[in-house]
Amino acid sequence: MGMDLGKFLNSPEFEIRITTYRDIFQVEALERDRFGEEYKKLSATIMMSRNDLQKMGFKSGDRVRLTSNSGSVVVEAKENKRDEPGGIAFMVNSPWSNAIVSGETGGKGIPEFKNMTAKISLAKEEVTPLEKLMPGMRQA
């Protein structure tokens, strides 16, 4: 009993480098339904190499908390199918990645491809809801 809680009490934090990128499928899902499950599935995700997942003790599908100087967000960790050596993770440009990207956009409104460092650890909370990331956005 209580074994499961233990793994969260001091779930270790790791440093991870994250690159954000644009994803055509995610953009299409956004145009179809901004608040849809499909958009969330494609957006609220961090893609990590099998190496990194194993090293950090995560499994594909685990929820993880990412924390940077700019903010904190809970997303799903997924195994990157391309055989990456690891050391860098990928997130599509979305409100989830923006939550931890610094607000510096160079006046363009959306940060382009960003390299950033964040802390990552196992999360027990659900994936951060879009409404929380975009205050003032209400579902029609």
Structural topology:
Elements: H1 3-9, E1 14-21, H2 24-32, H3 37-43, E2 45-48, H4 50-56, E3 63-67, E4 72-79, E5 88-92, H5 95-98, E6 115-122, H6 130-133
Helix pairs in contact: 2-3
Q: Can you describe what's shown?
A:
The chain has 140 residues and is α/β, with parallel strands linked by helices. The protein has one domain (13-131): Barwin-like endoglucanases (Beta Barrel), CATH 2.40.40.20. Helix content is 27%, strand content 27%. The protein has six helices and six strands; from the N terminus they run αβααβαβββαβα. The chain has helices spanning 3-9, 24-32, 37-43, 50-56, 95-98, 130-133, and strands at 14-21, 45-48, 63-67, 72-79, 88-92, 115-122. A six-stranded mixed sheet has the order 2-4-3-6-1-5. A hairpin with a 4-residue loop joins strand 3 and strand 4 (72-79). Helix 2 (24-32) packs antiparallel against helix 3.
Indicate the mean pLDDT.
83
The termini sit apart by 44 Å
The number of domains: 1
- Pattern of helices and strands: HEHHEHEEEHEH
Nearest-angstrom radius of gyration? 15 Å
CATH topology, by name, is Barwin-like endoglucanases
* Share of helix, binned: 25-40%
Biggest sheet character: 6 strands, mixed
Overall shape = globular
Poorly predicted runs of 5 or more residues: none
Record the strand order, biggest sheet: 2-4-3-6-1-5
**Which structural class do you get from the secondary structure elements?**
alpha/beta
What fraction of the residues are assigned to beta strands by DSSP?
Answer: 25-35%
| Number of DSSP strand runs | 6
Number of helical regions = 6
Please tell me the CATH architecture by its name. Beta Barrel
